[in-house]
Amino acid sequence: MRTDRLSSLAINKKRQPEAALLAAGALTAGFLNGLLGAGGGVILVFLLELLYKPAGEKAKTVFTTSLCALCAVSLVSFVMYVSEGRAELSAPLPYLLPAAAGGCAGAWLLHRIPVRALKLLFALVVIWSGCYMLFS
Amino acid sequence: MADIAVTFLIAVLAGLGVGSGGLLVIYLTLACGVPQLRAQGINLAFFIVSAAASVALQLRRAKPDAAVLSVLAVFGIAGALLGSRAAGFADPGLLRRAFGGILALSGAYTLIRSVPPRHMQTRRKTPLQR
Fold first, then answer.
1. Which of A69, A105, A124 has the CB atom closest to B69's CB atom?
2. What is the mean pLDDT of residues B101-107?
């Protein structure tokens, strides 16, 4: 099986502006993740696509990179929430098994179904919900 | 039972790369009446598990660069420490509105990205042109 690697992302002295932009974006994404419990993914994907899509990196490599980073970031946010008493360790338990099963199912379906229509539907639902939460 | 079905569907969307976009927070706060901060905590745990499951499968096809991942993780974690501390001081109503604003923006971004550029769109011939 062919493996795509973000080879063009190696950071050296010539690429310090890229590294600085990545650091600033990651800091912002992490802050939003901790503050709102979600929302960092859009920033990371936008940033990685902006920097590396023109160099020919594939969407799935960008997506996997942002997911890996957000796993670590969300883990720290969750530990902070629990340690400061804003979330209970037991509260998410009923959601974890369907979360793992759904994550695997989604990754398996990724190369098997067209996702454009789903993205459109998802975007419309999210815009409506966001406006509702913003103005209600 | 509805909770399990909704959580599964949202995790499928996350694994597909469509995005989970805090959909679980929306469901928990708007449909189940769970307080905002508690819903955010549940969403974080949900995201860790669904994303880890998805990454475990994706890593066979796409390997992230270690240097980039280190930068993202180190600065992301620093931001998360600041953000989760700030969440403790923020007014829940303000958090809810901020969450809504970020959702609306991320939805708009997803919408723009999912529409192909005009030059990529193939024009279908009308019956008169055939």
1. A69
2. 86
Helix, strand, coil % over all residues of chain B, rounded to 5: 75, 0, 25
Give dist(CA A76, CA A82) in Å, integer: 10
- Examine the predicted complex and report whether its ipTM is higher than 0.90: no
Q: How far apart are CA B42 and CA A88, in angstroms?
A: 8
Shortest CB distance from A34 goes to which of B5, B51, B87?
Answer: B87
Residues in chain A: 136
Q: What whole-number distance in Å separates Cα of residue A60 and Cα of residue A54? A: 14
Residues 6 or more apart from A39 whose CB is under 8 A from it?
A29, A32, A33, B21, B22, B99, B102, B103, B106
User: In this structure, what are the phi and psi dihedrals at residue A114, rounded to the nearest 5 degrees?
Assistant: -75, 130
- CB-based contact B76 A69, cutoff 8 Å: yes
Q: Which residues in chain B are contacts of A84 at CB distance < 8 A?
A: 84-85, 88
Q: What is the pTM of this model?
A: 0.80
In chain A, the residue whose alpha carbon lies closest to the alpha carbon of B103 is: A130
CB contact under 8 A, B85 and A91: no
**Partners of residue B62 on adjacent β-strands:** A4
Burial A84-94 (b: 16+ CB within 10 A, else e): eebbeeeebee
